[in-house]
Every structure is written in structure tokens, then in C-alpha cells.
Amino acid sequence: MAIQFARIEYVSRSGGGNACRKSAYNERSKVTCERTGEVFNWKTKSDLSHHEIMLPEGVSEKFKDSSTLWNAAEHAERRKDSQVAKESVIALPDDKVITHEDRIELSRRYADALFVSKGLAAQIDIHAPHDGEKNWHAHILVTTRGFSQDGESLATHKARETDPTIRKGYIKEEQNPGVIWTQIQNSYFKEKGYDLEVESTGIVAQIHMGPVRMRGHLTEVVARADLLKQANEEAVRNPGAIIQKLTEKSSIFSEKDVDAILIKFVAEKDRQALRDKIFNHKSIVSLYEKNSQTETGLFTTKEVRSEEERLLRFAAKVNEGKSKFLQEDISKEKGLSAEQDRALKHVLYGTKGLAIVQGRAGTGKSYTMNAIRESYERSGVKIIGLAPTHLVAGDMIKDGFELASIVHKFLFDIKNGKTIVPKDSVFMVDEAAMLGNSVLVELLHVARSKGSKVVLFGDSKQLSSVERGGMFDSLSNIYGSAVLKEVRRQKIEWQKTVSEKLGEGAYKEAILALDRAKAIDWKYTREESMASLINAWSKNHERNPHHSRLILANKNIDVDALNRAVREIRLVKGEIDVKGYEVQTQRGKEVFSLGDRVAFTMTDKKIGVQSGLLGTIKTLDDKTCVVILDSDKEVTFDPGKYQGLKLGYASTIYKSQGKTIDEIYVLHNRSSNQKLSYVALSRQAKDLKVFVNTQETKSLTHLVSQISRDSRKISSLEFMTADQLSQTAQNQNTQLNKIANMITTVVTSLKDKFYENDEFYQIKTPVQAMTGKESSVKPIDQTPLIKEVSDIEDNSLPNQERTSVQETLKKYRLESSFGIADNKTIESISALKLTLQEINKSLGISDNPTETLQKATFMAMQIQKLATQHQSMTQDQINRQIAVAANLWMEHKDTALGQRYGFNNDLIFMAHKQIKTNDKSMDLNSSTKAQTLLVEMTGITKDMPIGLEKIAGPTQLKLNKRIQEIYKDQQAVSRQQEQIRQLQRDQQKQFDR
Fold first, then answer.
1. Is residue 372 domain-shared with residue 478, that is, in the same domain?
2. Which whole-number Å values give the CA distances from 868 to 663, 861, 864, in the listed order?
3. Among 21, 83, 325, 361, which is least packed by CB within 10 angstroms?
4. Residue 735 vs residues 723, 728, 729, 742, 748: alpha-carbon distances, Å
5. Is the same domain home to 189 and 83?
6. What is the pLDDT of residues 579-598, one digit of tens each?
7. Transmembrane residues, as ranges (predicted)?
8. In angstroms, how far apart are the furthest CA atoms of the chain?
9. Average pLDDT score over residue span 19-27
10. How far apart are CA 481 and CA 356, in angstroms?
């Protein structure tokens, strides 16, 4: 299949890259790097199908030798962070009509069009797929410099004119590698008379009602995943690349973190040697406790340590700057509380250049920030609003900021001369804790050079940056901060208590408050929790259709499954149009209908949307989609061109930060932690419900331990290095040491003064959308697997079943035993009957419906008798007896007792005795198949310390099963999607550069 995939990335020394290593790997050859003395040997790999080096006209033939070309490239670069080469990887067609010569010619045409025709050398290496696979692909390694006029050496300047042009946040389509590769292939196929056409970059088949069918684009998924796997294979043999990966999202790492990467990517026989190389690498720095000076088992790198130290130096310089003292007091006018007034005065009355305000979730931080902004503006001070995301920046503009943008764009515009910072202006940064270290360094550098004051608003208790970060906390500790603690978002007392206790770090008290409010829903499996959540969502949606509501989960797979399940229920109920449209999105093909809740995942200024916005589809056809945003604004776009749409019923917790929603439904996950829990459990304004499964969380105590896990990003500066320990051990008061320290300070100061980070600004402007060619939008007739609304809503038994139960009661004269054959009793008998049928089926026993119903009736009668005898017996205890009895029957089914009585009264009595003896401490986690079936078919959970749910009727059973199907399908999709997402992220970064 011919596919569009093409990516370009740089080989950079800052990431441990080496042009000679890359060349040797691609060519499966042996190359010695003259600059480092390293020998790279990949001759043992046997999948090379073709190798050649293409040169521009007039260039010396000596550069056709790989060693000569790439050693010249290495020698030409002097900086330690230089980009020594760039590499493009393209997926080659694997169709039967395609020959080896075709693949070579296609690769040549691509290399010539993008590189050789522009004066660059290109090494082409075509790799054949492994047995049974189809991922033919080519690596094209390209010089970053052209050649001298005589063709005997590389040029003295980089060939920057070959980089793609970006306009209004988009790569020009004619320069997009994927688009160019598509055009080259289609043109070649037409020229050769092949009946082939390149497919657009779909990822997986549509996600529709019913099990996902992995069709259509699955071949492409596998091909792209294989390319990613091969890229990893090369990278993990480079210690520098592994170290860079370890510090990508955290300033520190442990031996355990290193081992995790090695186990994932490296063969066991190679691990120890590579592990030794990593810990002996020149960039590694061991960390020690400051007080005890003992080893921590933690590490960082010289580069990361330098970055953090530079950040603190820049912050100190900003703080030294003079700030205009303001006496403009609008506290009374704005109705600020005492603590909000203190925060306002902390910023306005302070004469230092750096001020920090910490606002716990729902405490009115945004309102306070706007009061501060208004005070400055009334005094004639120019305010520049900044944020880590488009969504937050958009909210700042809604709240009254004249200027607000994402920090990245602001920095790029400053660098490119597009923005002029007025004198004595103030940078007000919202959600500052979400800024990574590299961005914060640049922002403080700009503020220092422009003489601007910086005011950081954020919360160290909530989620921080995805990238390496955590310095907001350090800055707060050093320079102090005003803190807002009084919760205003929640009006209901128990919800305020939960939010406040989480903000204080009192996790046990927060969970107990949730438990007392009956806001925790316990089920046995994840799927059962999902089914219960969706049922609650659906019922509340009917009761209060005008409330905003959002489902939160930690993992993407859970979010996707929940989105699909909610949508299916809405389709069944007729709340969304049965006619859907299959739309190509960033994440593959999805089906949308009129009335669907959607989320935007790409910022597009032309349309007027930011990533993270939520809305409802008002109009949808193959050419037009109209969405009413939650702000009541309408946006219109072509669904065939804009690919940043996804279902919006559920979201990851990370993306919910900063939002206020009426109703929140949280699917708890065992990987939860302090920050995730705090954000998830503090978004609601009216109602909150948490759904927990006992497979992952055994009890309330276990839940407390999970949500209280420390998840903060730790700075390496919280620890000492070996050099610092050595200096401490020596006498620092000697004249020689004083002089040495003075020299170091002067040199560092000069470096800071002339500091420039060109690598950061390789991203000219964020790429907001990469749609490739326009995709088609197809109408889809949707058929949900739950056929009728009654499957979800109606918990009553069919009349035939009800009559049968009543007849059995009458036949055996049991009505008096129950007092009255009410609906609840009949439902319980039916559930027991269903359980017995499933157990018989699992054991291969033919079912006699009448006998099974009789047995279920006797069981219900006996349990009711026990409940009458022991009036203190709760419904939980009654249900528990059923579960224990089922387990006992399985344990004794081969004994005389089991063979004589089966699942009947004697075992019920035994169950009662066991429960009475063990009371609520009894645990059924050592389950047998019968018990598991009982749980699955009745909704009874196994978690005894917490208590059991009431027996579910047939309705809940169908929903549980449907959720299991959806989740199983989503697992298959997500395994493929996650690989593709990572590849897309890598590809996006390269297009950004």
C-alpha cells in the first residue's frame, strides 16, 4: 500500500547525535568519526536493500564516500549544540506491482526535489522489511551545508534557505514533505501506468457503534509503528540520546528509570554494557542530600543543572529590577475578600521586579488577577498577558486583557522583531506552574533585558508542565508568594471541604468527606465502574439538560472508551442524529452527529477556536460543521479541512485544569497522584461523583494512599553535587578560593549578559495544523448494539418472567414467607436465576429453567428468613451471603454435600455462618470462576470492607457487557494509536523547527 508518511528531523549534538553514527547505521556499514575517535559498526544488520549518495552538480566525487562526507560535516560544526545533519524517513510502497527499481527511483526523486536540487548532499539507504512485514522505507541523510564553489569542501554557512517557510502558523503546503512525497508517488504511478494512489494519513479505521473494525488504514499503522521501532533501535544504542530522553520531562532520574528504558528497548545481552556507558557518561551528575550529604540514588545532567541555575540567576536579576509602586486600590470596588486584597497589595505595593500569587483551585485567582490588571491599567502601565496554552490565553482576553498570547508565540515574536515591549510594562503570566524550564528561562531573560516586571499566577499543588519543569515551586520558596486558599467555586459544604482538604494536603479527610456524602461509587471491575458512571451521566443529563458536565479520566484509552459509550447511549435515546458523518481527525477517523459534544484539539485563528474548547454540533454535513461553543459563540468550518475535532463527553484530567464545570464524573485510576486528584476533584460547581473499582483500589485506605502519592517535579537544585561537597569540605575562606569564586561569578555574569539560546528559537512559530490534502467526509448510518432505550432505562422484568416468578411463589406457597411478592423480591429472584444459569453454563450443565427458577426462589426465601431472624442484617449482608454461597458451592460441588444439595439452603446457612463470624472483615478477593460470574452478572462487588452494591437487573448487565466490548476494542485501537501519537509528536516537532 502506498502511504503519505514522510518526516524530517535534525541530527543534533545537543541530543547526542553524530552524523557518522547515523550514516553507519543507515548504510549498515563501519565508519570512524575522526572528531571523537569513535568507531560505529552496523555491518551485522542485513536489511540494506540499496545505498547511494547523491551530490549536486559540480561537487567532487570524493564525497560519494560516506566516511569522507560525514566526517567533513562533523568537522564543519564547532558548537557543542550544532545540528550536523538532517534526516528524512519515507515509507515506500509495498504493492506487488512495485519493483526494487521503482523504490530506488522514487527515493531519488524525493531526495532530489527536497535536497539535492537545492545544493545539498543526500545519502539514500533503503531498508527491506523483516519477514512477514511490509514496512519498506528509506532513510535520507542530508547535509545542513551546501558546497564551496569549487566543490571540494562544505560551505562556510548553513543552508537555512532550504528550511520550510511558515506562514500564519502553517507550513506552506508546497513545502510540506508529506504533500511533496504524495505528489511524487502519484505522478510516478501515473507515469508508469500503475493503478495506485497514495492514501491520506489516516491512522485507524472509524470508531463507530459496535466493535471497532481494524481495517482500511491498519497497514499504515503497522508501517509507521515499525519505523518508530527502528528509530528507537538506533537511539537506544546512543547513551546521550537515552540521557536526553530521561531528562525530557524531569530534571532528575534514578537507576530504576534507566533500567525501565533498557528493558523496553534493548536486548538483555546488551543492557549491562549500555547501562555502564550511561552512568559513565561525561554529562551525568550524581546528587546528594544537602543535610546528611549522603547519596540519594538520583542523577541529573550538567546541562539540566546549568539550565536551572541560569533560571534562578535570571529570576534574581528580574527581582532586582525597580517596580513602580502603585496606590490604586480597587479592592472595595471589586468586592475582594481579605486574602484577595492581600494578594493584590502583594503585587501592586511591592517594589521588586518579580511577584508570585498562588491560587488554590476555585479560590478566585482569575478574578484577583483581573483586579490587579485593572489597577495597573488605570495607572497607565502596559500589561502583557501570557499563558502556557491557547485556551488559557483566550480566557484572559475574555476576562478583559487587551493583549494575551501563549508564551512561546510571544517569545518568537520578540526574537523576530514582530513585537515591541513598552518600557515599564508588566508580564502577567497565568497558570505559570505549567511552564517548562526552557520557556521560563527565555521569558525571564526577555523580562530582564526589557526591564519588565513579571507577575506569576499559578498553583504548585496542581498539574505542572509536561516538559521538564517544577521551578515555579522553587521560585515561590525563594521569593515568597501571596496564597489564596478560600474556596469559592463550590457552594455545597462537603464539596468545599474536599477541595480545601486536598489543597492542604489532608487527603484522608478529603476522602472521608467524599465517602460521607456518598460521592464514591464502588464497583468490582473498571468496566463496571464505567457502566455505572455512564448510567449516572445519562440520568443526570435527562434531569438537568442545561447543566454542563464532563467525565474525567487519567488515561487516553479510558477517555476514548467513555466517549464512545456515552455517545452510543445518546444515539439510542435519540438525543443525537442517527445519521453520522465519518471525519478524518488528527487521531484517525471518527464519526460525529448533530447534537454531539465535541472538543477542539488544534488552535485555528481563522476559524476562531483554541485547543481545549468544548461545544455542541449544531449543523453537520459533508462540507459544513457549525459548533456552538460553551461560551455561546458559533464557529463554522469545513470538516474535510479542519482535523482538530474529537468527542467531548470525556477528557483527560490534564486538559481539564483551569475549567469550571457544573457536574464532574471522575473515573479513578490506580496511577492517580496528588496533583491529578486535586485537579479532578475540584473542577465542579454543582456536583461531583467518583467511580472506583476494587480490582485496582481495595478500600478507602487504599484510595487515600493512591491519591496522596507525591507527584511534584523536583529540581536538581534541591540536592548537592560531588563538586559542591568537595568545596564544602575545603576551607572556603582562603584568599585563593575567594579569588576563584570571584572570577567564576564575573565569567558567569558575562555569559548571562550575552546569553542566547538559538536552539530554542529553531521553532519559528507553533504549527497549529497540518492537514495535508483535504480529506473526504462520508455519511454513516449508525446502528447501536443496544437496540432499544428500554435496555438502558427500564429495570423491570418482562411480563412473562414476572408471571413465572409469581406462579412459582404461588405454587410452593411462598408468598407468606416474603410477606408480599413485591417488585424488589421478584427482581432479586430473577437475578439469582440468571446467575445460576450462567454458572450451569460455565460447568457444561444443561439448564432446566423451571428447576433453576425454583432453586433461585428457595434461595431468596431462605435469605429473607435469615434477614427476618436477624433484623439488624443490612442489604449488603444479605447480598454478601449470596456471593459467599456461590463461592462455597463451587468449592464443595464435588463433595457429598454439593452433589446432594447444589447451590441451596444448606450452603446459604453456611454462608450466613461465615459472614456472621467474619462480619465485614471478610474478603472475597480469592475468587473462583463462579464467584466472578456472579459479580459480572449481578453487579455485586467483592470488596467486603466497603460493602456490596445491590443486585443489578438485566439492564445493568447489558450495559456492563457493552462497556466491556467497547473497552476491549479501544485497547486494540489504543495500542496502535499510542505508537502513532508518539510518532506524530516527533514529526510535529520537526515541522515546528
1. yes
2. 40, 10, 6
3. 325
4. 19, 15, 16, 11, 20
5. yes
6. 889 998 887 788 999 999 99
7. none
8. 109
9. 92
10. 5
Q: Mind listing the pLDDT tens digit for each residue in 146-167? A: 999 999 999 988 887 776 554 4
Q: How far apart are CA 427 and CA 453, in angstroms?
A: 6
Domain coverage including residue 878:
796-952
3-state class (DSSP) for residue 95: coil
- Report d(CA 744, CA 313) in Å as an integer: 14
- Tell me the angle at which helices 556-572 and 526-543 cross, rounded to the nearest 10 degrees: 50
Q: Cα-atom radius of gyration of the chain, to the nearest Å?
A: 33
Beta bridge partners of 666: 552, 690
Rounded to the nearest angstrom, the gap between the alpha carbon of residue 548 and the centroid of all alpha carbons in its chain is: 23
pLDDT digits 0-9 by tens, 658-677: 899 999 999 999 999 999 99
CA 198 to CA 181: how far, in whole Å? 9
Asked if residue 206 is part of any domain, the answer here is no
The two beta strands, 453-458 and 354-359, are parallel
Q: Looking at 321-363, list the stretches that DSSP marks H as alpha helix, in order from N- to C-terminal side.
A: 331-334, 338-348
Interatomic CA distance for residues 566 and 589, integer angstroms? 18
951: which residues sit within 8 A by CB, 6+ positions away?
827, 828, 831, 832, 879, 882, 938, 939, 940
**pLDDT tens profile 384-435:** 999 998 889 989 999 999 989 999 999 988 888 888 898 889 999 999 999 9
- Is residue 925 over pLDDT 80? no
Q: Which of 935, 972, 949, 212 is nearest to 568 (CA)?
A: 212
- Whether 872 has a pLDDT exceeding 70, the answer reads no
Residue with cell 484530567: 653
What lies within 8 Å, CB to CB, of 56 at 6+ separation is 116, 117, 119, 120, 121, 146, 147
Query: Residue 203 to residues 182, 563, 642, 649: CA-CA distances in angstroms?
Result: 16, 18, 16, 22
Residue 492's identity, in one-letter code, is: I
Q: Are residues 502 and 468 in the same domain?
A: no
- Mode of pairing for the β-strands spanning 122-127 and 30-32: unpaired
**472 shares a domain with 432:** yes
Length, in residues, of the chain: 993
- The grid cell for 789 is 432505550
What count of other Cβ atoms lies within 10 Å of the Cβ of residue 466? 12
pTM metric for this prediction: 0.63
Q: Which helix (H) or strand (E) holds 7?
A: strand 6-12
Query: Which uninterrupted H or E stretch holds 623?
Result: none
190 and 151 in a common domain? yes
